[in-house]
Known about the structure:
Blueprint: H1 9-15, H2 37-46, E1 53-59, E2 61-62, E3 74-75, H3 82-100, E4 105-113, H4 121-134, E5 136-137, E6 144-149, H5 156-164, E7 169-175, H6 179-184, H7 191-203, E8 208-215, H8 222-235, E9 239-244, H9 266-282, E10 286-289, E11 292-294, H10 299-306, E12 310-312, E13 315-317, E14 323-327, E15 332-335, E16 338-342, H11 346-354, E17 360-365, H12 368-383, E18 385-387, H13 388-395, H14 399-402, H15 404-415, E19 419-421, E20 425-428, H16 436-441
Parallel strand pairs: 1-4, 1-14, 2-3, 4-5, 4-6, 6-7, 7-8, 8-9
Antiparallel strand pairs: 9-11, 10-11, 12-13, 15-16, 16-17, 18-20, 19-20
Helix pairs in contact: 3-4, 8-9
Amino acid sequence: MNNSLIWDTSLIRRYDQPGPRYTSYPTAVQFTGDFDQSLYNKAVASRDPSKPLSLYFHIPFCDTVCYYCGCNKIVTKHRSKAEPYLELLIQEMAMQSELFGRHAPVQQLHLGGGTPTFLNDDQMKQLMHAAEKYFRLVHDDDSDYSIEIDPREADWSTMGALRELGFNRISLGVQDFDVRVQTAVNRIQPISLTEDLIDASRALNFKSINLDLIYGLPFQSVSSFMNTVEKVIQLHPDRLSVFNYAHLPHRFKPQRRINSNDLPSPAEKLRMMEETTARLLDAGYVYIGMDHFALPDDDLAMAQEEGVLHRNFQGYTTHGHCDLIAMGVSSISQVGNVFAQNFPDMDNYTQRINNGQLPTYRGLQSTDEDMMRSHVIRRLICDFKLDFHSLENDLDINFLDTFRPELEQLKVMQEDGLLELDEQSLKVLPRGRLLIRNICMVFDQYLKAQTEQRFSRVI
Length: 459
């Protein structure tokens, strides 16, 4: 794949608006509280029982709050709270296993949070042994068993314990190495902690390391953030996620502790991302899309080259063929055309589990129209192109007739140099790759009715 990008500041400013990240389509904004649990059960009953699975476990606890965070979390110093939650997770596993059986291989497993390493080694072992009991975990070269790690909450011993349990990918939260920025967001994290865990991961033969960065945090400048980027390049992670900080204090209470006057200007944020993108490409990283970068020999880059990259609630993935079972508060499962989300609060989650019920509080059954548009958006966001003939075979439609209004709307983007469009295909051009969310939004039939700002800005 041609990995060239052209940063056009005037175009980016014109198109820089809030928009979905399309980890699903329809997005979670469309989920409804009157969702019928039987729809999920029917989707499970109708699936091929040998179809591979992806498991997700949400561990919501954090020892301290990071002021920028918009995740579903429980901030507590009481480590004892992990044990009863773990028991609930295991009960939920048992209920899901009763529905799915143990025939399907689990090719992907992910622990997110919160802070998954809030669990101690024994609790992590208890969780994974329960997963082994209720599902058919597969430990081979094709399996991806990953975990998000706060470097303040782990050491070499932790990494050894995780490796023994079968984890082979890690994601480390860095955000920024600048001490002034770290202080402003209440996340003091010396670079030595990150270096130690990377050294441990390589010594223990973890096959992939991802680092998360955030630009737009208080007291960041172009020069200070580029210092962080240079240090990250020296660490040579396999993957990088470089996220735009969305300051939404009306939605996320911890963000109210951030003084908006300390935030970099929109113009400076754009320069941060421009210089970061250029520097990472110069260092040999491939732009996967949507703020994600990877080394050319990483599975994500190779999957994109082969046209089999996928996107779901865990971001870009090579396991789009798996049904997703998500467990824990707020987590979202997808089985076939059905989405089901758990209660986000501990009280309702606990009550449902103790009543012997799956803790679903909202969801959605996608229509045929939704599935068609989801396929188009996914191929755009993963491949940066659409082949109309291929889509017609996949979807049994006449693409030009079905999407005539959208193709007409895209002509403005074609005139702006974001894409190339003819009767056979759509190709996103180097000027348009950073604005792929905008192009996908044209195919989103729900956005026109959206009145509240629920999404981050595209850059």
